[in-house]
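User: Teach me something about this protein's shape.
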Amino acid sequence: MTEFFDADEARSAEERSQAMARSLPRVIAAALKAPGWRAHLGGIDPEDFRDRAALAALPILRKSDLPGLQKADPPFGGFSPSGPGLFARLFSSPGPIFEGEGERVDPWRAARALNAAGIRRGDIVLNTFSYHLTPGGFILDSGARALGCAVIPSGPGNTQAQLELICAYRPVAYTGTPDFLKILLDAAEAAGLDASCIRKAVLSGAAFPPALQREFEERGIAAYQAYATADLGLIAYESEARSGMIVDEHVVLEVVRPGGGDPLPEGEVGEVVVTLLDECHPLVRFALADLTAVIPGSSPCGRTNTRIRGWMGRADQTTKVKGMFVRPEQIAEIARLHPSAGRLRLVVTRDKDQDAMTLLAETSEPAEPGLAEAIGASLAAVTRIRGEVRLLGRGLLPNDGKVIEDRR
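Assistant: First, the predicted structure itself:
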């Protein structure tokens, strides 16, 4: 089935780096036209940022901060170079977070994911993502239209009407959540209706467990996952190789220490940070609070961009201990203060009806003299709460991105 969307998907690492060196300064320059980005990034020279190493020196903008920033300076918090009237559509996603859709073909870049799933010109696509206020429906709709597909803009719910549409139009492809596709297929079977026309699917917005993957395969449906958000559009997608998710060509994806900004080595689970290489909609080091890990090497399908393991949970593990919030950013600060330590994990429990916390810290053996005491002092200074420190050997903490574990 391999048919690349464009030549960029198979370019070499050197070609991709050269393209980033050309586009990244232009994206940062475009961002600096907006007052919010100027205040956030400071007095930088865009020409100084041409590769991943330079990019990693810039501060992170957290998605969780956007609602407050946008409320203080509506509608976009000062982070858009364009006023709201210059967008094609305006949305409000849960948060609320306000975002606009650009006036161009496939502004969310979803066509690449649909193409990798085998959807082609002339296919009819049943799009069950919502078209109401949030951009989900329009993200997949615009991608399918860019490929030359006809789209049924059905949105979610109203199962009986959906079945009538399927029987009338015979769509070959479905876009929506995995759960709703199962609802439709089960309802069609119960009603004695034929939904076998659906042979392809691009799924997002919910977990896609192996049992459901097998069920769709047994029903003759080739279903692929896409990782997208309302702020960024497409981030990564599956191909027929089913060997991780391939990062979109307009995205620079970093996996960083949860709560911090330091990029982690390949294979380490951390927080997704995205820079969008789009001068019309610049986002620089935008932290999503999602967890993933980079898979070494390229996809067997021939696409050469970075691969990730997909969504692996949430990085925002903030909890309250003895009436005080403890955040992943604080654990990252302790890690910065003690570079000889490896992974850190704060375990919060109850002891004699009181909150208690233990910081587990990986370290080489034998440990540096006094390291546990020094880490304990940093824990108390950074969180303003005293806790126990326990040193472990390297590799003994799970590689799951969790830095705060609340066991209460």
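Now, about its shape. The first strand starts at residue 61 and ends at 62. The domain at 104-238 is CATH 3.40.50.12780 (Rossmann fold). If you'd like, I can walk through any region in more detail.
User: That's plenty for now, thanks!
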